[in-house]
């Protein structure tokens, strides 16, 4: 879940919804994370292309 804690940059893109969900993705590693402080949801997905 490292990507959720990282600040936005050229490599890390993301946004927060009105309901408090944070979506972030790291371009260089193709990692995606979803989290919410309110309900303590966290989800991490790493995609690989073959």
**Distance between the ends:** 23 Å
Beta-strand share of residues: 35-45%
How would you classify the helix and strand content by structural class?
Answer: mainly beta
Radius of gyration: 11 Å
What's the average pLDDT? 81
Parts with pLDDT < 50 across at least 5 consecutive residues? none
Biggest sheet record = 4 strands, antiparallel
Major sheet: order of its strands? 1-2-3-4
Shape: globular
Helix content: under 10%
**Order of helix and strand elements from N to C terminus:** HEEEE
Number of domains: 1
Number of helices: 1
Number-wise, the strands total 4
Features:
4-stranded antiparallel sheet, mainly beta, 1 helix, 50 residues, 8% helix
Write the layout of secondary structure elements.
Elements: H1 2-5, E1 12-16, E2 21-26, E3 31-36, E4 42-46
Antiparallel strand pairs: 1-2, 2-3, 3-4
Task: Tell me what the structure shows.
The protein is mostly beta strands. It has one domain (2-46). It is built from one helix and four strands; from the N terminus they run H-E-E-E-E. The chain has one helix spanning 2-5; strands at residues 12-16, 21-26, 31-36, 42-46. The protein has a four-stranded antiparallel sheet, with no helix packed on it. Strand 1 and strand 2 (21-26) form a beta hairpin. It is globular and about 30 Å long. 8% of the residues are buried. The model has no long low-confidence stretch (mean pLDDT 81).
